[in-house]
């Protein structure tokens, strides 16, 4: 019996440990919250997951049933031996209950008389039990913790309080959002050759600008943007500002309200990436030659 329970212990422990190790590892890998992970699961994965979970629950129930049956069998065997007058193991306290007595510093039932208080209310009597040591330890730990907490948060102001933490998080998120959406240093503009910028600029251009400038930028209503002739200048700053402010009197609107600064920067770089290409049907040169400095 003893060995059996040891084996059972292992039989429970190993799969549980394995389960947590695997889920921890995969959580690390994807570094997503549980909620996102579930949301991103495909239908099959979800069904598989539910099935696995159901299987685990069933396995657990079977295990409990086995443990219960074994304890009943043990009891029956014992009773039979007692009836037949065979020697039986002293019915020692189970490890569990002796462990409980120990951790709770409880007085064994046989000795309870010693701690009985001498009042008796209609037969209800009271024991003067000790507080469990773990309870007392928690009590002391929480006092020490409280002192530490007060020193850190209220005396030395070493860490932000909840409200400040919230402000900080909001400020960080706002900065992050600005960085992603709209922060371009307009005092030092330059063409970028970051493929992500160019790719995004292409999308912006084809959606908004190609109607007048054509997909290949050869020009139609608007001028050819691939040649070296520029009405408003061909530097990164010139192009950026032309797009941002537009030339409303000539039919080119200001894009400031419709595109983010990042999009304007991207489309500026995309225009530059098509410089000196040969569009199918280029419009005649307009403006003056702008020479790029050797890069
Ligand atoms: C409705 C038509 C139209 C659309 C749409 C349009 N443009 Fe223009 N664009 C023009 C016209 C017309 C000009 C010439 C303005 C002038 O003559 O001063 C121009 C000029 C320009 C210039 C300056 C060219 C030079 O020679 O200096 C650039 C750069 C430019 N457009 C980029 C864009 C971008 C980028 C978009 C999309 C976000 C866009 N345009 C959308 C009509 C348009």
From TrEMBL:
Residues forming the Cytochrome c domain are 196-275
Compositional bias ranges of the Basic and acidic residues kind: 280-295
Segments carrying the region annotation (Disordered) are 275-295
Can the keyword Cell membrane be found in this entry's annotation?
no
Q: Where are the transmembrane segments?
A: 46-73, 137-156
UniProt KW keywords: Heme, Iron, Membrane, Metal-binding, Transmembrane, Transmembrane helix
This chain belongs to the protein called C-type cytochrome
Q: Which organism encodes this protein?
A: Mangrovivirga halotolerans
């Amino acid at each position: 019996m003893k060995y059996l329970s040891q084996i059972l212990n292992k039989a429970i422990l190993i799969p549980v440990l394995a389960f947590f190790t695997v889920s921890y590892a995969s959580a690390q890998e994807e570094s997503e919250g549980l909620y996102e992970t579930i949301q991103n699961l495909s239908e099959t994965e979800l069904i598989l997951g539910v099935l696995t979970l159901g299987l685990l629950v069933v396995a657990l129930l079977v295990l409990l049933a086995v443990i219960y049956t074994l304890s009943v069998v043990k009891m029956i065997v014992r009773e039979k031996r007692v009836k037949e007058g065979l020697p039986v193991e002293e019915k020692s306290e189970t490890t569990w209950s002796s462990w409980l007595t120990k951790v709770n510093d409880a007085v064994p039932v046989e000795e309870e008389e010693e701690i009985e208080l001498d009042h008796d209310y209609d037969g209800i009597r009271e024991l003067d039990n000790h507080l469990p040591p773990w309870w007392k330890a928690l009590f002391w730990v929480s006092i020490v913790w409280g002192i530490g907490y007060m020193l850190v948060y209220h005396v030395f102001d070493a860490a932000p309080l909840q409200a400040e933490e919230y402000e900080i998080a909001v400020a960080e998120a706002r900065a992050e959002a600005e960085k992603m959406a709209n922060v371009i240093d307009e005092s030092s503009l330059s063409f970028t050759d970051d493929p992500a910028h160019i790719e995004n600029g292409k999308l912006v251009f084809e959606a908004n600008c190609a109607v007048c400038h054509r997909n290949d930028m050869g020009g139609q209503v608007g001028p050819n943007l691939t040649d070296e002739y520029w009405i408003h200048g061909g530097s990164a700053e010139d192009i950026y500002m032309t797009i941002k402010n537009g030339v409303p009197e000539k039919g080119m609107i200001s894009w400031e309200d419709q595109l983010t600064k990042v999009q304007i920067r991207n489309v500026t770089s995309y225009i530059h990436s098509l410089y000196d290409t040969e569009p199918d049907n280029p419009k005649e040169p307009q403006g003056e030659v702008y020479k790029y400095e050797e890069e």
